[in-house]
Amino acid sequence: MNTCDISRAYIRAAVAVLLAAFVGTMVLTGCGSAGQTYSPIAKTGTVAPAADFTIAVADTAPGSGTVAPGGTATYTVTLTAVNGFSSPVSLSVSGLPTGAEGTFSPNSVTPTAGGGASALSITTTAPGPGSLTGTIRSSSISITPSGTSTTFTVTGTGGFITHQATAILDVTQSTTTTAAGEN
Known about the structure:
Strand order of the largest sheet: 4-11-10-6-8
Shape: elongated
Largest sheet: 5 strands, mixed
CATH class of the largest domain: Mainly Beta
Radius of gyration: 28 Å
CATH architecture of the largest domain: Sandwich
């Protein structure tokens, strides 16, 4: 079997795979048929870079990623279009500590060359006032641990592309004040 015995369908499929993964100029050499005889063919083409986007997460203001239990930390998620990317990107957050919840506004952003943005608010929980006595028989109590630093992940998915970026949430040590004579 020589190289000219490859079917045209196979060559088309192979070229499609090469074009999807290649950026720049390439020369493809193969064989074309004219009746029973084969003659070499060469094709030259330029492939443009694929459309894509980047994602970044930053504190909205210095220190806005540091909160006391029960507070809200704020971040800006920036999505920048690369090579003309124009699909909406859905956002999600993972890796938050127990009792913390993240919400995006808006939840989906179409990246632009200058950067499209979404505000991420992470709300933490704090223990309520008073004291607990006895045995707690529920596993549904979620309090954000104080004195923790957690790296969380923001994921953006759009146009069959997924990218992630990380940031840090610092929950400061909570302090409890007890009045004289109280336990």
